[in-house]
Amino acid sequence: MGRCGECQAWGSVSEVAVAAAGVSSRTAAAPVTTAAVPIAQVSADRAVHHPSGVAELDRVLGGGLVPGAAVLLAGEPGVGKSTLLLEVAARTAAGSRRTLYVTGEESAAQVRLRADRTNALEDQLYLAAETDLGAVLTHIEEVRPATVVIDSVQTISASGVEGVPGGVTQVKEVAQALVRMAKSRDITIVMIGHVTKDGGIAGPRVLEHLVDVVLHFEGDRNSRFRMLRAVKNRFGPVDEVGCFDLGPDGIRAVDDPTGIFVERHHGRVPGTCIAVSMEGRRPLLAEVQGLVTISPNERPRRTTSGIDSSRLAMVLAVLQQHCDVRLHQHDVFASTVGGARLTDPAADLALAVAVASAHFVSAPPAGVVAMGEIGLSGELRRVRDLPQRLAEAARLGFALAIVPADPGTAQGVRRPSSDRMIDGMRVIEAPDVISALRLLNLDRRTKHALEVIDGSE
């Protein structure tokens, strides 16, 4: 055949011998793409982080987007994944880095409407509405972008591969092709992934192994606050958290999210206490509220919101056994403010203080934070990153902190004369829960164990 049937060029068709399948079980040696060199001679200049323009995303990624990296962003429907990545694409394009946004779930006009609303129109931002993998790869070849956003990987299908879009075979083939393109062209590819009803990433587990970074975008539907967590990161830490505010004008980074979870009361309120939890490397203050009422039922209710119900049951058992706080005939309700979810064990002491305060109808001193993990014997265990927690509480103007005592030196509760001062905040150590309640005048057997520190006194 002298003439090519596609390009109509003469003499461009060459004969290639193809080995018959099943002739040999051994794979023959093939030419290498690049020669092997000592690792010290490999240049790392091509794997440098480039800022995305969104500070909270760069915080989670470890500095920014890395050329040749494949990033997978997963989250619940409606949490704001597309809004976040459209903002990232616009900020990246504004930094003179050509960006391609491929949408398979919406039309180009729908994405344009969102871009108008969020002010995400940039000359270097290209938009394509495609669901075929071959067409997506062609767009990448023609536009030659530095960053590509795929919304979403479950909507792209590869021709010639069995299965429906979003199926195991299709998702695996699409992800492999996009990762190969990212590695070969030094393009950062960010893919949106769907999640199952259990919260896991939809599709094969190999999808998470193929990509370099796996991010989870989460938030309560009744709250505008969103959190971005890194589950896997080959280029940075996996214990960082980014905070965002999703509003009608788009999404913006929240540098100081503490005010969202803390309600400023005009006076002392029974049944409230401030906890300091660690979200990754970032200390966050959250208000814990408790309500205790006499139960008309034979089996009292235990209701939680933002707090683990099993953790509440353990705290109530410790209060009844070691602190003489009888709650077996009372309904107990525990909640957080602003939709915060507390999973840090250091919030145990704040939960105990809130419940005891609600039971005795006695407000703790104003400006108090409590942190410490409660053991089954009633002891307070040390928590990680205590200096960072105390520094954050002091920065926000709290006057008193109750923390666990150092088991190596403490023989009981330190008296006020031996308390520490950190940036104007008084820090008192307590070895167990009953000592912490006594310090806050929340124990009926011992009144006025501590002179209340109040800004009004």
Classify the beta-strand content into a percent band. Answer: 15-25%
Alpha-beta classification: alpha/beta
Series of H and E elements? HEHEHEHEHEHEEEEHEEEHEHEEEHEEEH
At the first level of CATH, the class of the largest domain is Alpha Beta
Please report the distance between the alpha carbons of the first and last residues.
99 Å
The tally of domains stands at 2
Instruction: Find the CATH topology of the largest domain.
Output: Rossmann fold
Biggest sheet layout: 9 strands, mixed
> How confident is the prediction overall: mean pLDDT?
86
How much helix, percentage-wise, in residues? 10-25%
Number of helices: 11
CATH H level of the largest domain: which superfamily?
P-loop containing nucleotide triphosphate hydrolases
What would you note in describing this structure?
This is DNA repair protein RadA. Belongs to the RecA family. RadA subfamily. One of its GO terms (biological process) is recombinational repair. The protein is of the alpha/beta class and 457 residues long. It has two domains: 45-253, P-loop containing nucleotide triphosphate hydrolases (Rossmann fold); 260-439, Ribosomal Protein S5, domain 2 (2-Layer Sandwich), CATH 3.30.230.10. The protein has helices at 55-61, 81-94, 108-118, 133-143, 168-185, 206-210, 258-261, 309-322, 348-360, 386-395, 433-439, and strands at residues 70-75, 99-103, 125-129, 147-151, 188-193, 213-219, 225-233, 241-247, 250-253, 272-279, 282-294, 302-305, 330-336, 368-370, 373-374, 380-381, 400-404, 420-422, 425-430. It has a nine-stranded mixed β-sheet with strand order 3-2-4-5-1-6-7-8-9, sandwiched between helices. Strand 10 (272-279) and strand 11 (282-294) form a beta hairpin. Helix 8 packs across helix 9 (348-360). The longest helix is centred in the middle third of the chain and has 18 residues, at 168-185. The relative contact order is 0.09. Mean pLDDT is 86; it is low at 409-418 and 446-457.
